UniProtKB/TrEMBL annotation:
One of its GO terms (biological process) is cellular response to calcium ion. The lineage of its organism: Eukaryota, Metazoa, Chordata, Craniata, Vertebrata. Belongs to the copine family. The keyword Repeat applies. Transmembrane segments: none annotated. This is C2 domain-containing protein. Pfam families: C2, Copine. One of its GO terms (cellular component) is plasma membrane. GO terms for molecular function: calcium-dependent phospholipid binding; metal ion binding. Residues 15-138 form the C2 domain. PROSITE patterns: C2 (PS50004).
Amino acid sequence: MLIKRGIVLGIPGKKCGTIIFTAEELSNCRDIATMQFCANKLDKKDFFGKSDPFLVFYRSNEDGTFTICHKTEVIKNNLNPVWQPFTIPVRALCNGDYDRTVKVDVYDWDRDGSHDFIGEFTTSYRELSRGQSQFNVYEVLNPKKKGKKKKYVNSGTVRRVECVCVLQYLLGGGGCFFPGNPSQPTSLHYMSPYQMNAYAMALKAVGEIIQDYDSDKLFPAYGFGAKLPPDGKISHAFPLNSNTENPNCVGIEGVLEAYFQSLRTVQLYGPTNFAPVINQVARCAAEITDGSQYFVLLMITDGVISDMAQTKEAVVNAAALPMSIIIVGVGPAEFDAMEELDGDEVRVSSRGRLAERDIVQFVPFRDYIDRSGNQVLSMARLAKDVLAEIPDQLLSFMKSRGIEPQPPLPPGTLHFNNIRRC
C-alpha cells in the first residue's frame, strides 16, 4: 500500500480510506523540565488487590485534540503511589506555551492491556512550575462516576512534588545551562521553604561525613560562575561568605548558610569554568606533600563545563598532589563531560600527559533520589557512593610517595587530620 499526499492508493476502483496529516510549527523554546508526582487515595480497581496506577500526560493541539507526550512507570498495588521523577522538553509538553492545557489521565494497569480508567485532571506548565501550594494538588475526576453518584467527590488526588526547569541556550554552537533566579521554582537553586534543593542536599550529605575528619570544622567554600556586587564583575572562584581574606565557614551548616546568603546577593552567570577552583585547591595541596594532610574538593554542578581543556589540564596536574575531587551533578542535563573527567575507564589526559592516578569521582544526583521522596535516604545513598573511592585514592598517593602510616596513637587519644585552608 502506498500513501501519497494523504491519499491511500490501493486496489484501483476500491476505496481504501484517507489519512489526515496535521502539523504544528515547533516553537524555539528549549526549556527542559524535571517533574515528580505522587497520588493519594486513588480508587481501588483490582478485585484481589488495590490498584496499579500510572499517569499518562497529553499535550493539547491547536485543533483541540490531545497527543500523548509521556507515561510514568506503573506502581504496583498502591493507592498512594510516588512516581519517579522524569525529564521532558517543555516543547513536547506544551510547545513552549506555558498556559496551554496539559491533560493527565490516571489508569490502573492491567496485564492484558485493558487498563482501567481511574480519572483525569487538567493543568498547565505555568501551574506546574509554581512553588508548593494548593495549585499543585489536583482532584482526579471520573466523569462517568460523577454522573452516576450524587455524593461523588473524586477518585483521589494527585500532587506535584517537584518541578525544576533548566533554561537551555545555544551560545556559539555550544550548550550552556543557566541556573535562573533562585527565588523562582524553575531554578535548580530554588530556595523552597519546604525542602532543600539538590545543591543543598549534596552539600549536607557529603559534608556531614567529611567534617568529622577535620578538627576545627572550618571549611573554605567557593562559588563559580556569577556576577558579584557592586560592579557585576564575573568570578569563577568567589568565597560564598563574601570574605576574600577568610573564606572559611564553620561546619557544613555554616557552608549551607553562606550558600543561601550568596544566592541572595550574587547574580548567577555563565560561563561555567572549573579550572580556577581546582587550581586554587591544588596550590594549597602542593605546599604539603609529606602525607600529613589530604585535600578533598567537592564540586556541585549542573553539568556544563565551559573550559573543558583547562579543566582536564588542572585535573592532570592535581593527580600528582594529595588531593581528590568529588563532582555531584544536579538537574536533568547530560553529564558526558563529567564522565570523561571520572577516569574509571579511561585515565584523563591533557596535552599528551596522562593523569598519574584517578582522583575524580562523579555521580549524578538524580540516580540517588528515593522513590518515596525521602531526602534522608537520598542523601545517605549519595554520600556512600561519592566517598567510596576516597580511601583508595588517598592510599594510592601515599604509596606512590613511599609514605608509611604513622605509629598508632596511645589508647584514649583522639586525633583528626587538619585540612589547610585555601
